[in-house]
Write a structure and sequence with these properties.
The complex is a heterodimer of chains A (388) and B (372). Chain A is of the alpha/beta class and 388 residues long. Chain A has twelve helices and twelve strands. In chain A, the strands form two sheets. A ten-stranded mixed beta sheet of chain A has the order 2-1-3-12-11-4-5-10-8-9, sandwiched between helices. A two-stranded antiparallel sheet of chain A has the order 6-7. In chain A, helix 3 links the parallel strand 1 and strand 2. In chain A, helix 10 (321-333) packs antiparallel against helix 11 (337-351). Chain B is an alpha/beta fold and 372 residues long. Chain B is built from ten helices and 14 strands. In chain B, helix 6 packs parallel to helix 7 (253-267). Chain B starts with 11 loop residues before the first strand and ends in an 8-residue tail after the last helix. The chains are: A alpha/beta (388), B alpha/beta (372). At the A-B interface, strand 6, strand 7, helix 7, helix 8 and helix 9 of A face strand 8, strand 9, helix 5, helix 6 and helix 7 of B. Strand 7 (180-188) of chain A pairs antiparallel with strand 9 of chain B.
Chain lengths: 388, 372
Amino acid sequence: MTTRSLRSLSGALKPLFNGHLSRVYGVSACNQRHKSTYAPPPARYGGRHTVTLIPGDGIGPELANHVRELFRFCCVPVDFEVVNVDSSMASEDDINNAIMAIRRNGVALKGNIETNHNLPPSYKSRNNLLRTTLDLYANVMHCQSLPGVRTRHRNIDIMIIRENTEGEYSSLEHENVPGVVECLKIITKTKSLRIADYAFRTARAKGRRRVTAVHKANIMKLGDGLFLECCKEVACGYPEISFDSMIVDNTSMQLVSRPQQFDVMVMPNLYGNIVSNVCAGLVGGPGLVPGANYGEDYAVFETGTRNTGKSIANRNSANPTAMLLASCLLLDHLRLHAYASMIRRAILSTVTETRLHTADLGGQGSTSDVVQSIMNAIQSTGPQTLSI
Amino acid sequence: MQNYKYFPLKLRTVDNVKMLMLQPPPAKYGGRHTVTLIPGDGIGPELLNHVREVFRFSCVPVDFEVVHVNSALETEVDINNAITAIRRNGVALKGNIETKHTMAPSVKSRNNLLRTSLDLFANVMHCQSLPGVQTRHKNIDIMIIRENTEGEYSSLEHESVSGVVESLKIITRNNSLRIAEYAFRLAREKGRRKVTAVHKANIMKLGDGLFLECCREVASGYPDITFESMIVDNTTMQLVSKPQQFDVMVMPNLYGNIVSNVCAGLVGGPGLVPGANYGRDYAVFETATRNTGKSIANRNIANPTAMLLASCMMLDHLELYDHASSIRNAVLTTMNETRLHTADIGGQGTTLEVVQSIMRFIQSKGQLTSDL
């Protein structure tokens, strides 16, 4: 849910926001809406939503196709506006088009866009550019042990909230003296307060008991010290939720020995990257966990660990679970809850069948088998579907 | 920043095996070495007492010069004394010195100060699955070489605008070449086949890009060793699913911290893995994950294995190989006995029991020992 979705829209304002008019008044109306419910971007043309789709590279395009197939099959009232971003081009036109499309539609589903190391350093990461331009400040990843997947750890249920726009990913680097590179890690009070607030609100909304802040304030005293201080400040306003902090190295060690102790975790960008990958590994791998990036006005959904998967592209062996669960998060965001739960149930029932596990889970199933099985499961539960 | 010139590190030949790195400081006074001992905080003092006990018992020709560092003081006198002592003796064994968050930011981390002043540029941690310890992953044998002096730990931070903090992460060509060279030489010496560089060059293109480039440059000089690179997030994910694929890993400071803690967790916890910090002229040994262990201090439940194995590494460094192997064998044999496992590996044994069992084992091997 975006920030706005947590506030309530009073009935009186609804008539103002019909169809295309809302887009014209979008910016100025925003301030009015602060005290009211967030309405997801209004459905247009007879109740159908338009969502930007960015296929990306590697396994992105094939998985995006499967999502579209599934949505068409289930008669989900969502139309996808496909925007291709070519990662090999040095100009930023492609990504700017994509950003404009997302501003227009408000919601997007994306695959990971590759960042080629061989291109010059002035070429910024496209994914990063997208996140910072749209100010998608919260990356939320919910790692849960799935019943059908055998892992070394059981009963994991961790929600990771990661600051998505600043920290080590500021892309501010320079080489004053040849051979000496300085990278700037930026931590600001406003953004730290914002992400901490988001974390606690989400914890409260989901009925979670504990929030852990992950930091390295013994070494980066000013930077992570500021982050920690902001978290403590926000924690005071949520007395029913217990707050503690843990240094990132101890956190990673605890995660591999006893991950069940963690509930909600909030952290700056780089630690979030590493911790979320560790958790994804603990629950079964990158093919299973969806991720969401929320901002004030926009939401972009993708796989949790943002892998391009170049080595398994177009081989029908990628695990579609993460992308499909991300699309369910998308449907939840658009308030199409019935469709979301139906697809999610089908996915989870398919994941319990070991013979359908793809290679990353240790099985031999193919992507199309998995998707087919999901569609079968949906059809058997009775809602209106197209023929298979 | 000091102008560091890259000197090739010395090699010595002992029994036709090329030994890496430093000449140990010469033994003094009839063959006895003097080693600086910094007890630190938390479980440090009690574990180092046990080390001294075991050394005294096994008649190891090492004398400890104890230097206390008070972490509550704001002045740097204590840590400077410790550094001088290490410069004098060349070798040290230390417990972790606590860094209180509540003190002013100008009070730098004492451990970090020690490492940078003595230029202990390589932190080496060898994670191996121990037979007697039950873990979820088996057959792990990873050597982690972490740059120890620069990177994110430069302690250079400032708040130019109120509410906006900038932390500087420094990567230099010299230090990156140095650590890469160290990693490859160590890999060759230990007969390892593969070195993996861990980085985040897709985001930090200049910084980690430079590190990666230096690693590649050095790799070209070692055609017998395979070199590959992996982004840190993928690395951590692979570590928790398939850690057996890694052999030697080299990385900058912060990733090294996190990856080494993950590996320590995989092989059984912070109580089992020793770590070593090597510089051109000095070597300091400690537990790999540098925990203070305040909550278990003075309760006789800490696991002495990591500290004792670190002391064995120190003995190897001083070329007292016989003593090193005898103590190491004793420690590993004791590790096989489940009833002696301490709380961190799921048992109920006390530190004292473990140490006594080690001493009994050393005595049973027939070497010269004091009375128990």
